[in-house]
Amino acid sequence: MAQVGNAKVSRTAPPGAKSDRARHERAANQTEPKIATKPRGAAAKRPSEAPSRVTSAIVFFREFLRSPAAVGALFPTSAAIGKAITSRIGLESAEFVAEIGAGTGPITKHILRTINHQRCTFFAVEINEKLAHEFRSRFPDVHLVCGDALKLRSLAQQVRGAKHRGHAGLDAVVCAIPVSLLPAAARNALFEEVAKSLKPGGWLSLITYQVPMTPKARELRRALRAHFDEVRMLPPVWGSVPPGFILQARCRPK
Asked: What whole-number distance in Å separates Cα of residue 36 and Cα of residue 50?
């Protein structure tokens, strides 16, 4: 009870008033539009590859320090090199493709973007166990062989027997092995193995950082011509440090 002057006023609502007010409030809640709000930071974002790229670069750099000649570079291959080395070798229509010296996979992603997954069998080869482990963490669905590229025909036969029985040979081999740093005997053995693993007209595509007019670069081209019937060099890839040079060689008919 409250008192105003001499009059006493009751604060108690008349019978039924509470229920009427509750009904009005419920009706208002039903007709009032509700605005959904996103929690802070909930905006949709595309997953970033940055963490995996950083991890791969660290692993690659450590392996370079451990074995510079075998790894051949301070950091993984650039995206510009990846696009160039996978161009003009018919990956779009290929049925059987191998990547040798796959490392942590900087070129692999460009191969995967180019090949027709419904018709092409693709596998990668990497001899370094730590780099192979990092590769598998990034590309768990890619068939990776931790082995020697000098056994490419045998490795291809194993893959072919499981997935591509009866295929005549590889349509293309993408090579990130630092061939210009290999001893001449090992380099020639690798080129011979690749040439024998390719089908007639198949392509080898490789990267070198040797300036074309240097003695080592000329020696590399001569070694390729000893095993392949056509050797060409693509324009320099300036989006790489140092600039890269793509050599492509076509297998002579058998």
From this structure: 32
What is the Cα–Cα distance from 10 to 173, expressed in whole angstroms? 94
Report whether 83 contacts 110 (CB < 8 A). Answer: yes
58 found inside a domain = no
Give a yes or no: residue 221 inside a domain.
yes
Q: Dump pLDDT digits (tens) for 102-156.
A: 988 999 999 999 999 999 999 999 999 988 999 999 999 999 999 999 999 999 9
For 67, other C-beta atoms within 10 Å of its C-beta total: 10
pLDDT in tens, 118-133: 999 999 999 999 889 9
CB 67 within 8 A of CB 130: no
* Domain residue limits at 172: 76-251
Q: What's 216's domain CATH number? A: 3.40.50.150
| Helix and strand totals (H; E) in the chain | 9, 9
Residue 47 lies in a domain: no
- How many domains are there within the chain? 1
Integer Cα distance of 76 and 79 in angstroms: 9
Q: Yes or no: say if 116 and 147 are a contact pair by the CB < 8 Å rule.
A: no
In our burial notation (b when 16+ CB lie closer than 10 A, e otherwise), range 176-189 reads bbbbbbbeeeebee
232: helix, strand or coil: strand
Cα–chain center distance at 134: 12
Tokens in use for 184?
């001449």
pLDDT in tens, 6-29: 444 344 444 554 455 555 555 545
pTM equals: 0.72
Six-digit token string for 155? 């490795």
Domain-located, residue 46: no
